[in-house]
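Ticket #518: bound-state structure for protoporphyrin IX containing FE.
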Amino acid sequence: MVFTSTTLVWLPIGIVIFYVSYQRLFHPLAKFKGPFLASLTGYWRVYHELKGDLPQTIYHYHQRYGQFVRVAPNEISTISPDFVDVVLKGGPKFIKSSFYDGSGDEKPNIFNVKNEALHKLRHRQMAPAFSVVSLTKMEYIFDRHAFVMIKKLDQIAKSGRPVDLTEIFKFFAHDTNGELSFSKQYHLQEQGKLSLWPPMNVYIIMGNICGYVPGLFDPLQKLGPFVPYLRKFNRSRDSLVEDAMKNATIEFEKRRVHNVEATFEDKSESRINLLTSLVMAQDPESGEMLDLADIAKEAISFVVAGSHSTSASMSFLFAALLRYPEILKKVQDEIKASMSLQDNSVDLDGEFLPSWAGLQSKLPYLSAVLKESFRLYPTVNQPLARVIPPSGVQLEQTVFSSGTIISASAYVVGRNQKIWGANATDFKPDRWLSEDARGKDKYLLHFGQGHRSCIAKNQALITLWKGTVAILQRFKLSPVDREGEQRVVGEIQLNAQGFAEPTEPLLVTISEQSRCMK
Ligand code: HEM
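RESOLUTION: The complex was predicted; output attached.
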């Protein structure tokens, strides 16, 4: 067939007109409002991902259009409480959407696997390692790194120079999570160089972009060697894969091939950690174990999912404490009034660190502050996206048919006035101490909800709580600007590229205070 030049001009124009008309007028989701470009292409979200304002933008559209906003040709974002009750807590019939294929993994891990039977098996194999009982036995790892952080802050306090707390938390969280997941000592805290921090967020950003535009992963891989950003991503991935394979092989040989028993009591470096737990993980029903490739793959997902998310959560918490000095004072007073030496039973080289047992219940006000920080400044704002099953589903008064993707972001749900009241956007920890808060925990989506929620929530909380209390027990923090002058901290803004973190560094000077302890 020969195309005339007129056909060559009009054919693409015709296809575009047809596509736009279909998406805007005839698509089953055409009746839902949202940004025009989002109804046509996933690149709308890619643009906002790279700009770092996707959750804020989606929130803005929810304020304008209400409960449901079309954020992609086949996806509706919602702030409806029903989403939590019906979809996230609705069990395996709501499978994860194609967004989770963004990492391009041939073999999925527990986080991105869509096959619910395989997820169930992995969860049964791995959940025991993340139980409080098991993590408490690994408490020495959390303590070791909290201890190094305290010593480092001691030195900084003596020097009088300002420090950016976001960096301190990055090193602390990655040293802790890296040892737990990879059996590896990263020593980032001692070396104190941000350049040594593995660029895990690049991993998340790439996963998001390829999740928003299905099918983009392979072409981007081909461009990899020519685009600096993609080269950085490939380097980051390769070094994580290398570390994971190396350490998983050592652990595998030791525990499975040579049957070296892992004990919690062992005082050597080979004591039990998450990697050991993965090697030993067994389905309680069938006895099935993970193979070496699976172990390495899961360990990588722990590092990618765990280090930046934990440090950024800690940064947001401290950003809020510094922004509201009266809340910071109340937290430090609570620690002083409630914590005794016995509660700080971990003694490392004369330094007492808070032990995990009962820590949250001893400090209800700090618990409330942390929840409020999770609510307004969640670090994981990726769409919790699920596919509507063949039976369809009703949310509020609206029926969604099979195959539609429905999603929510923690940031947007955390600001829904229908759930949190007229002062939803105000930082008010006291709301968690009132009767009104009863039953509202489930609408906090920073760790997700339901059977696909964060398997390592306890691990993240132990890191966060221990680090936070150890710092607040010892130091007085004063926010300063880049010149070292005292300053008042302004509104907290999120940079939501990949996992969100505060846009501003958390510069403070620190001085020692008498130990906040009874
Ligand atoms: C404060 C820190 C953390 C936050 C805010 C966080 C947040 C989340 C969220 C929101 C999900 C659900 C995602 C979804 O439904 O799409 C999730 C799942 C997951 N997280 Fe975390 N996470 C944190 C720390 C960690 C750590 C430390 C690890 C590993 C060591 C980890 C490993 C995982 C895994 C494996 C899943 C998938 C669970 C499943 O599907 O069964 N996370 N996390």
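RESOLUTION NOTES: The CA atoms of residues 124 and 283 lie 6 Å apart.
TICKET STATUS: resolved
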